Fold this sequence. Notes:
The structure is a homodimer.
Chain A: E1 2-6, H1 15-27, E2 32-37, H2 39-43, E3 54-58, H3 69-75, H4 80-89, E4 95-98, H5 102-112, E5 123-128, E6 135-138, H6 148-164, E7 173-176, H7 187-197, E8 205-209, E9 221-223, H8 226-254, H9 259-273, E10 281-284, E11 289-292, H10 299-314, H11 317-326
Parallel strand pairs in A: 1-2, 1-4, 2-3, 4-11, 6-9, 7-8, 7-9
Antiparallel strand pairs in A: 5-6, 5-10, 10-11
Amino acid sequence: MRIALDAMGGDHAPGPIVAGALAALKSDPDLQVVLVGDRHQVESCFKETPPAGIELFHCTQVVSMEDSPVVALRQKPDNSISRCWQLLAEHKVQAIVSAGNTGAMVAGGLRLRRYLKNVRRPGIAALMPTLRGPCVLLDVGANVKPKPEHLYQYGVMGSIFARYILERQRPTIGLMNVGSEEQKGHDLAKETHALFNASPLREQFIGNIEGRDIHQGACDVIVTDGFVGNVVLKVCEGVFDFVMKMTTKELLGALSQEKAQAQQAIQALINRYDYHEHGGAPLLGIDGICIICHGSSGERAIKNAVGVAARYARSRLNQTIVQELASGPLQVTEED
Amino acid sequence: MRIALDAMGGDHAPGPIVAGALAALKSDPDLQVVLVGDRHQVESCFKETPPAGIELFHCTQVVSMEDSPVVALRQKPDNSISRCWQLLAEHKVQAIVSAGNTGAMVAGGLRLRRYLKNVRRPGIAALMPTLRGPCVLLDVGANVKPKPEHLYQYGVMGSIFARYILERQRPTIGLMNVGSEEQKGHDLAKETHALFNASPLREQFIGNIEGRDIHQGACDVIVTDGFVGNVVLKVCEGVFDFVMKMTTKELLGALSQEKAQAQQAIQALINRYDYHEHGGAPLLGIDGICIICHGSSGERAIKNAVGVAARYARSRLNQTIVQELASGPLQVTEED
């Protein structure tokens, strides 16, 4: 199992990226992690000789978080994200992982057009905490103007991901909308709703869900366009952070003897639900495995993401996507 | 100051609606509240003779929360929401307030087409708590497929609302998007971005904001389409509820002597930031005042909403909207 890890991607790279790679190796000795980045900078992160499971792939350029993805990929051909994609395209690795510029990771994949057979557009799937365990939200940013067929395919892919990675037997699927009634929302929502109801997924499709249903655990997979999904993901992060700050302040003011215990309990909660620590979001629909991590990912998040990539690579997830899309109502008949 | 209050609208109407009306009257004796609804049901909510500030407008029908707005308005002509709009159209009241079916409230207003001069499409403005005090998010559901000009007008109207109701001197305006860079997002976002930058609001416009910026208090007014705004509003509600539940559970497990104090502190926080208690969301752009409340609104929320309606009615908010839209780059030249 060989996984390429973008050593230059992320707010504090390469330090926590290298540390995450070492932690992942420790818990899964069958891994081989290829650190892609500036040799000098990466090597300076090792306190001792790297273990045998670590390789280095040198490249000289970095796409920064502020760079325009498309421009950066063109102007910096030797950047670590493009090199990761190249290793994947050449079958030298089975998976790639990056906490760098999300737009560049997606653009790199779309540019190669190495989609799985029958997939029309890849989508990013994020895990969201709920009262009933994590659910899958997709797309969270690869496709800001999708067609109904794309959203339907996200339902298929998200559902397979929930089966293989979250171990849900028969995942339920909901469509993000502004009301529960069938006729709600804009044309995209209405057409997607009709498509699901006429598809092999109709038994798993629970119809529209609203924003407040997500964290109740209303369904296992939530389908939406990349604009709404991206906004939702970041709003959740923001509210969580806001509420935790307010709660800490309020409690420290109200308690006298058990301040320390309260702080510890809140910290435990933050660690458990931290949106940065969920182990990355896969770009589903790619022929290969691509995991996109939060820019602020630390050692633990990178370790988790490499772990998810390995588990994904050992599963039949991608083969199942190809099969189930082939038997669906929407075989690819045109390029778009 | 005469305000019509939909006595039949809301999950527990008419009880908390009538109680809210009485509470509003107590704190503002200059009010005259017209309770619109079934005379028998409304009267049964009074323990003693209603004060002079209460009037009753009898009607026989109710739009339920599950009703399709357009169908219900047509099939139930004597419903309390249509009667409220009628009172407003006939200038018998200055404002209307309802916690009933939001879609029907909006549809009632759009059907009358009593827009303020120069307004192309009304939008619902919701208040959101942030670390720097409340901000205005609009539209949250009146217009799920807006044009860039509509979003620009939401910026103008939201900014005036923030000046008059939130007392911000010179409100900043942000555009909800999936990244901070100018070229981010779908066509609607890019075109709206350009429109603001070429408008008299360009000095107040801070550009794109992302989901996680909202609760940091990144700006005073956030402009978005009604689909995204509605999802964001409800997601915030859901995450808040989720985090409060998890925090309570975690703390009660961790503390021994100060459980009661912790519970009290959390309850205070819930009361302060409760999304149901914010006093309703105005439908801006209507010639008159229309405040839409959460279906679960209790006495306090209704009292707050009536208070906001009165404050709005006493201000020059609507006149200012007409003036500032007239001097903007986008006078109404066509109906759409």
